[in-house]
Specification:
Shape: globular
Largest sheet: 8 strands, antiparallel, barrel
Strand content: 25-35%
Structural class: alpha+beta
Radius of gyration: 18 Å
Strand order of the largest sheet: 1-2-3-4-6-8-9-10
Oligomer: single chain
Number of strands: 10
Order of helices and strands: HEHEEEEEEEEEH
Length: 256
């Protein structure tokens, strides 16, 4: 039931949460829509780089989530970007993954911490400082809420890597202004508040171009997952408002 919001809203607490969600969604929609119109492109993550990849998974207990039950490899389309699109300074790192095949769906991940609380808190990073990205909010599954996390994979020793903390550096000859996201990530999964478990690896072949592809993690989540109604109320209106403006593959108007 990909894209459906299954949880029912019945209790007074849930009704209050739905009311707050609708109000917050309306505010986000107004802000995102205005930002997109002023920029003439996406409200957030306006400049990025696109690529294609494959995600291989080590299956665990049956979960009903095709991505985790099927070892793959799952073909993916990937976009790396920074939230404001600024070329310099600290920013939020973002990774959008479109999974094709039986596990099809969109996943958006952003730079966060990895601890019990930190995995739900956005983290800013320098231009070429790559680190963990998570779904921030859990996906709903038949076995309960699920968080996904991708960590840059260690660079191999022959490439001058220094273990798990090694991150790619600007490609020689291209200049420091060229984005060189990691070409491999380790996949981890966890329930909120629970330890992470490594379950797979994402390999990416980046291009030197951006793309106009849109992603919809609320309406098109991975097969076997869905979005909790509260998160849907918060996120859906903002996506709809932002997408009224074409996703141009150009620098935002305020960029130099």
């Amino acid at each position: 039931m990909t894209g459906e919001h299954r949880e029912s809203v019945s209790t007074s607490a849930n009704l209050a949460a739905e009311t707050l969600g609708r109000a917050g969604g309306a505010l986000f929609a107004a802000a995102f829509g205005l930002t997109a119109r002023l920029r003439g492109t996406r409200a957030l993550h306006p400049v990025g780089v696109c690529g294609a990849g494959t995600l291989s998974v080590t299956p665990g207990p049956r979960s009903g989530v095709a991505l985790l039950d099927d070892p793959g490899p799952h073909p993916c389309l990937v976009r790396w970007s920074r939230a404001t699109g600024r070329r310099q300074g600290r920013d939020l790192e973002g990774l959008a993954v479109r999974i094709d095949g039986p596990a099809a769906g969109d996943v958006l991940l952003a730079s966060t911490g990895t601890g019990t609380v930190g995995r739900h808190v956005l983290a800013v990073r320098d231009r070429h400082d790559h680190g963990p990205v998570t779904t921030l909010l859990p996906l709903s599954t038949r076995r309960g809420p699920l968080l996904l996390r991708l960590d840059p994979a260690p660079a191999p020793s022959w490439a001058g890597g220094e273990g798990p903390s090694a991150t790619p550096q600007p490609t020689p000859g291209k200049g420091a202004d060229v984005d060189d996201p990691p070409t491999a990530y380790r996949l981890f999964v966890a329930a909120p508040g629970q330890p992470w478990h490594e379950r797979g690896r994402l390999e990416i072949r980046w291009t030197d171009r951006d793309c106009t592809r849109r992603h919809d993690p609320v309406g098109h989540p991975p097969a076997g997952t869905w979005t909790h109604p509260l998160w849907a109320r918060l996120r859906d209106p903002a996506y709809a408002a932002s997408q009224q403006v074409a996703a141009e593959t150009i620098e935002p108007k305020e960029q130099s």
